[in-house]
Amino acid sequence: xxxxxxxxxxxxxxxxxxxxxxxxxxxxxxxxxxxxxxxxxxxxxxxxxxxxxxxxxxxxxxxxxxxxxxxxxxxxxxxxxxxxxxxxxxxxxxxxxxxxxxxxxxxxxxxxxxxxxxxxxxx
Length: 123
Fold this sequence. Notes:
The protein is of the alpha+beta class. It has one domain (about 30-120): Cupredoxins -  blue copper proteins (Immunoglobulin-like, Sandwich). Helices cover about 25% and strands about 25% of the residues. Strands 4-3-6-7 form a four-stranded antiparallel β-sheet. A three-stranded mixed β-sheet has the order 1-2-5, with no helix packed on it. The termini are far apart. About 20% of the residues are buried.
């Protein structure tokens, strides 16, 4: 009987390890704009891609010419950064997606209006 209980305990530990490892392994990393990076016309980059909460977007760009601002739907539509919006400006930013639609713009003058914005929906 004692051997059977040990086997069950080991099985539970192994199962938990697999589940925890599987959760980590499921996250994906995407470079926004692929080889071209974060730039003008990035808005169509997300088309046809499937994203999940926990996936990571990597924004690569010239930090003297662009930035990345996480905005809400109104900020995305109007190309404005609301007060307190999170601004990234390293030129190599990593952003973890939340469930739902995640909106990003460049708020350098005229850039968002020229198409430097993306909306990414994570399941």
